[in-house]
Design goal:
The protein is mainly beta. It has three helices and 17 strands. The protein folds into two domains: 110 residues, Immunoglobulin-like, CATH 2.60.40; 138 residues, Jelly Rolls. Strands 3, 4, 6, 7, 8 and 9 form a six-stranded antiparallel β-sheet that branches. A hairpin with a 2-residue loop joins strand 13 and strand 14. The longest helix has 13 residues. The protein starts with a strand and ends with a strand.
Amino acid sequence: MPITPIPVRGVAPVIGLGVTLQLQSTFIGPLPSDTFWRVAVTDTGDPEGNNPFIAMRFAGSSNPQQVIFNPGPGDIQINGIPSHADGDQVLVIPTLEDSAGNALDSGSFELPWTTTRGLGQQNLLQLSSGGGGLTSQQAQQLQETHESTFPSISLDALTLINLTPGGPTGDFVGAQLTAPVFGVIVRIASVPSNLSPQTPDGDYWVPTLAVVRIFRGSDLWQRVPIHTSSHIVGILNPFVVAGLTAVTGSLWLLNLSLQVTFLPGVTGTVELMRLP
């Protein structure tokens, strides 16, 4: 029962940091709610995957499953930053696992390594890791410092991280929210001519132009439809804010992720509002 890659919105699959990969298993479902996808990336001369330079484990019970190669705590192991050139072939070894780590399905295939796709996610990766040549311990300390001061940072100091650096797109946009994020901005760039706004201000479409979804692991936390030319979707809610004021240290929820999907024919840009 092999696992194979399939195109995302018609684009041929590649692999690299920040890239969205869509996998399809021939496992006869439905998949259990505690199913995980493990994906290892290694050199083509390592068919058993004994020395992967990336190995990630994603929670998710959908098939096909979209996975984003952007690290979160406990999700990724990087054994040396890949030195492959853009277009080099690498070996991808996906496994579908139950909660006990038993393999339900597996596969292996070669894909081109990319250093140019997923640039917005790579930018987020560098910021989330601390950057500047820090050791893993220093990066963690810096992360904890940011997190512990989160409630007192002015909103005017928010850093915008562009998840669509190539300009407006109609493709799926996703990100792992590994550091404190205030919200996400979706700006609509184009709408099909057969759709017109239906309100006096000329800035509200009855059809949903885009959908923003926030996940905690594989569970949907927020789902926000976009009907206007721009919209700020807040990640925080009163429960999270109350929790932030009550604790110190680990102040950000783990395993948060973002998904933005556009109506066919609609294009737009997506930016994260992240604290510096």
